[in-house]
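Weekly sync, protein design subgroup
Attendees: M.S., D.O., the rotation student, P.L. (late)

Item 1: inverse folding check
M.S. brought a backbone from last month's batch and wanted to see whether the design step gives back something sensible before we order anything. D.O. pointed out we never logged the input encoding, so this time it goes straight into the notes. Structure tokens as presented (388 positions):
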């Protein structure tokens, strides 16, 4: 099957049929090359943690996987690494990107959320993606990295060009890569000359028994933190608001008991996460998944979105239930590649929803057709019209 056939418009219907028919399917991947798709919860969870499934593109069979080509200075990131390189880099990052740092961001996130809501005024109509769900995380990530205010809109445009390319401008993705590489090169130079109280300065300075991050690793980490931190949070915030406004009973329950919110964020992530596919993988040897043998070097796509709707793991999975124990969802990964920014994504979503619901007690969906982004890697709305 062609992976994009129906999946962008009706993903959970397609995934339901695939789960019901077989554990693993031979497909045409997003890059047009043959691949294998894994959709059942237990198989996806196991695959995400299987060390035989490499993230390193060098293990792909020659002439198969194409994917998106990044220059070496942006490609040396955790999404392309296996141990021991992954272990080393993640350890160094962990010394700078600490739980304490994330906790310290909660107050600035709330201030940013309140300022964006102030700009909306007390009542009216708005596109909540453009006015709130997108500017909040780009502000948070740029503050975290120490990116000056005047460049933040540029980063948002560049990131959008990579995740959901405009078919009318196929060159936009390459232009975005060149622009980001140039900007990060200058930013790293400036941070070395004048370190600040930001994550990028700390990553430059971090040491572990004399070990340090290389120039390419620094550049790639800055790129990954910006790219993944912005995209995941935009989609998760927007999708969560849509889920609530589409389920008045659940919205009413959350308004009655705001204490449900931390658990609700987990249910939102399970119900409508920010991506339809996880990063591709390549077996370093023949691997059996769900009784199907996948040859070494071939491309494997696993779908946390499909796994999160597997009734074998989550009863009545197509129902949004804020009282559900959604622990164990795979939206943020599993195993050694579990999302480094998961605590930040949770904090941003929880704070964004709390501020929004407190500010606008009559928030409702506005007029207009809801359009999803044409991307298998970014499950989110082009716009979210609301009245308040």
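Designed sequence read out in the meeting:
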């Amino acid at each position: 099957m062609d992976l994009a056939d129906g999946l962008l418009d009706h993903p959970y219907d397609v995934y339901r049929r695939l789960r019901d028919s077989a554990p693993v399917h031979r497909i045409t991947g997003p890059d047009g090359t043959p691949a294998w798709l894994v959709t059942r919860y237990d198989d996806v969870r196991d695959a995400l943690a299987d060390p035989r499934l490499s993230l390193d593109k060098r293990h792909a069979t020659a002439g198969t996987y194409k994917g998106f080509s990044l220059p070496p200075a942006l490609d040396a990131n955790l999404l392309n690494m296996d141990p021991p390189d992954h272990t080393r880099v993640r350890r160094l990052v962990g010394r700078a990107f600490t739980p304490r740092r994330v906790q310290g961001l909660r107050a600035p996130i709330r201030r940013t959320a309140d300022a964006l809501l102030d700009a909306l005024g007390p009542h009216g109509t708005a596109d909540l993606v453009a006015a709130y769900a997108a500017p909040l995380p780009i502000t948070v990530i740029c503050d975290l990295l120490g990116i000056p205010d005047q460049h933040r809109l540029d980063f948002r445009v560049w990131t959008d060009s990579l995740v959901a390319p405009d078919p009318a401008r196929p060159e936009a993705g390459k232009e975005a890569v060149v622009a980001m590489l140039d900007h990060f090169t200058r930013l790293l130079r400036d941070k070395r000359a004048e370190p600040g109280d930001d994550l990028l300065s700390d990553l430059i300075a971090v040491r572990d028994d004399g070990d340090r991050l290389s120039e390419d690793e620094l550049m790639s980490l800055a790129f990954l933190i910006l790219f993944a931190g912005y995209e995941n949070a935009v989609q998760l915030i927007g999708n969560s608001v849509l889920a609530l406004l589409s389920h008045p009973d659940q919205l009413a329950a959350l308004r009655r008991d705001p204490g449900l919110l931390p658990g609700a964020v987990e249910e939102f992530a399970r119900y409508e996460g920010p991506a339809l596919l996880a990063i591709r993988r390549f077996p370093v040897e023949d691997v059996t998944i769900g009784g199907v043998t996948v040859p070494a070097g071939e491309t494997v796509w696993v779908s946390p979105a499909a796994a999160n709707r597997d009734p074998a793991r989550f009863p009545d999975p197509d129902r949004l239930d804020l009282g559900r124990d959604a622990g164990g969802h795979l939206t943020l990964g599993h195993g050694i590649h579990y999302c480094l920014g998961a605590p930040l994504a949770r904090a941003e979503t929880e704070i964004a929803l709390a501020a929004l619901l407190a500010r606008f007690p009559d928030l409702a969906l506005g007029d207009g057709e809801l359009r999803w982004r044409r991307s298998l890697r970014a499950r989110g709305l082009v716009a979210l019209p609301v009245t308040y």
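Discussion: Strands lie at 24-28, 34-38, 53-54, 125-127, 282-283, 287-289, 292-294, 300-302, 364-365, 385-387. The mean pLDDT is 92.
Action: P.L. to compare against the previous round before Friday.
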